[in-house]
Design goal:
By secondary structure, this protein is an alpha+beta fold. 33% of the residues lie in helices and 13% in strands. The protein has 18 helices and 19 strands. Helix 3 packs across helix 12 (325-340), helix 7 crosses helix 8 (174-183) and helix 14 (396-407) packs across helix 15. The longest helix is centred in the C-terminal third of the chain and has 18 residues, at 429-446.
């Protein structure tokens, strides 16, 4: 390293990222002297005492009914003349057999009578959903094979009719935008708190919701529903109890995108779940932190504000009529896994999180997202650790590249200034040791270059998000169906935007369909392009052109 500048040293690591699906322990990585993260005192992640879901303490474990039925159906020595075409693996593609073996094909069955069905809901599928409702504390639960996207679309369609107003954060998932296209709802956006040091957007506060409600009152209307994302991708939790109390006083249902929070409420140090805090509709990605298969989710309903039959009708429109039994069974199995020991199942994961946090806090130059960065919010999910590298003069992308190369560490989120890792029941100590070792290496390598830090790395140079002058000309639905033409982005000023344009970070759309393209928005987007930021949504990923409405 002697005689090298920081940029010369960093260039040594600039290479294509390669993922290696192979276990390598710390000693093999040349880290025989790395110790286990120091056991620290239990870190407080919230501002108040958090209790586990009351319904779980008395919950009785029930074997997974759909898993049991699927197992029984698969071992039948039957002459089978039904879908799917591979016929229990007899004609399965050889390349896929080499990848996953034969057993998955034995259980890849259709809606046989002994397994039940979605529409009408009956049999073991219905029983499995009832067991899930008991565990999570809902009035009714629906399994989703189209991911949380499907659940969010159903929730918004069930509460909003064409022309109704939906209050939602500007950084809502893209499925909320597609739901407004399907339902004809009109958005009333709340702009979330934004931390420029981290370049991370937070949640929404009760005061922001109240302000939005009163703004609509002055226009002689009210919201058909309020949509909240909690926790956010980075684990920031909104005060749902206060939000639900406020909204219910107006008779307005609260929909919570809890895609990243299916585990909440299952440990005393975790934030409460959305259902526990009074939400009416909650959509969870069971596959994210819990252990079902990817693409499988759940939709929960509680209370009496939302018409349950309308939810069913919307799901019937949106869900596949040929659902994967493997996905459904994985939801049943994930429920059963939690229900065996709902009060203790996350103990080990929480201990690992606390150990990792304690060790990382001791590494010079590494920042850890925590209070007071988002002091307006009651909790940050302890299973999400967001690590900043600007004190080392590194972007999140650069740190990720080095961690991947040296320790084969693969985070969930990579941003301009940070990476975010997820800790779950599947997290092992060896992987956290590898992460800590990699962070120590980064610190030791780049602390000597602090005097050479490039301001362009520390500060992305972006202006605050241009939300002071949002002008809606068409509804999202009308803009989606409108005739469009492609124009050079520099010639789009004053036009009606025809597509969603969302830079990451912070994952907050700068332009939504139907909005007037302003000079502030264009300047911001061109700045993102210059800084090689990631932009989601537009048909032209280089952002040289943009679709506008005729």
């Amino acid at each position: 390293m002697l005689g090298l500048t920081k940029n010369q040293y960093l260039s040594h690591f600039r290479r294509s990222r390669v993922f290696v699906c192979q276990e390598t322990n710390i000693s093999e990585a040349g880290k025989d002297d790395i110790k286990s993260p120091i056991q620290g005192s239990s870190a407080e992640v919230t501002k108040g005492n958090i209790s586990i879901l009351n319904s779980q303490t008395a919950y009785q474990y029930t074997p997974p009914p759909l898993v049991s039925a699927l197992e029984a159906a698969a071992i039948q020595k039957a002459a089978t003349f039904h879908f799917p075409g591979h016929n229990r693996g007899r004609a399965a593609p050889s390349s896929l057999i080499r990848l996953i073996g034969m057993r998955p094909f034995l259980y890849d069955l259709g809606e046989l009578p002994e397994l039940g069905s979605f529409f009408p809901l009956e049999g073991p599928i219905m029983e499995a959903q009832k067991e899930a409702a008991k565990l999570f504390g809902s009035s009714e639960t629906w399994f989703l094979v189209g991911g949380t996207t499907c659940g969010i679309q159903a929730a918004i369609m069930a509460t909003c009719s064409p022309g109704d107003t939906l209050i939602l954060p500007r950084n809502s998932h893209m499925s909320a935008i597609s739901a407004m296209i399907l339902s004809g709802a009109l958005p009333h956006y709340i702009f979330p708190e934004y931390d420029s040091d981290w370049e991370v957007a937070g949640g929404v506060t009760p005061s922001q919701i109240e302000k939005a409600v009163k703004e609509l009152e002055t226009k002689g209307t009210k919201a058909a529903a309020v949509f909240v994302t909690s926790p956010t991708y980075h684990g920031i939790c909104s005060d749902l109890s206060a939000i639900c109390h406020l909204c219910h006083s107006y008779g307005t249902p609260v929909i919570v995108d809890e895609a990243h929070g299916a585990h909440l409420g299952f440990h005393p140090q975790m934030p409460k779940s959305a259902l526990q805090q009074g939400a009416d509709l909650v959509v969870q990605s069971t596959h994210k932190v819990l252990c079902s298969l990817t693409q499988s989710s759940m939709l929960h309903i509680s209370g009496s504000i939302v018409n349950r039959e309308r939810i069913r009708r919307c799901l019937q429109i949106l869900q596949s009529t040929s659902p994967s039994m493997l996905l459904l069974a994985s939801l049943d199995a994930a429920r059963a896994q939690i229900s065996k020991n709902p009060e203790t199942i996350f103990n080990e994961a929480m201990e690992l999180s606390t150990e990792a946090k304690s060790s990382i806090e001791k590494i010079p130059g590494i920042s850890l997202l925590d209070f007071p960065s988002f002091s307006s919010f009651p909790a940050i999910d302890p299973m999400r650790l967001t690590l900043g590298f600007w004190k080392l003069g590194l972007s999140g992308y650069e740190a990720d590249e080095i961690l991947s190369r040296d320790q084969k560490v693969i985070p969930e989120i990579v941003g301009t200034r940070s990476i975010t890792i997820v800790i779950s029941m599947g997290t092992c100590r060896d992987h956290l040791l590898r992460l800590v070792a990699g962070l120590k290496q980064l610190s030791e390598a780049f602390l000597p270059f602090l005097g050479e830090v490039d301001d362009g790395v520390i500060n992305s140079g972006q202006e605050p998000l241009p939300f002071t002058n949002v002008s809606v000309q068409l509804s999202v639905r009308d803009a989606f169906f409108a005739s469009k033409r492609r124009v050079n982005i520099r010639e789009s000023l004053g036009e009606i935007c025809g597509e969603l344009i969302c830079p990451y970070p912070p994952g907050t759309p700068v332009l939504c369909p139907g909005e007037i393209i302003t000079e502030e928005a264009l300047d911001y987007l061109l700045g993102v392009r210059v800084n090689f930021g990631l932009i989601a949504g537009p048909s032209d990923p280089t952002l040289s052109s943009i679709f506008v409405c005729e």
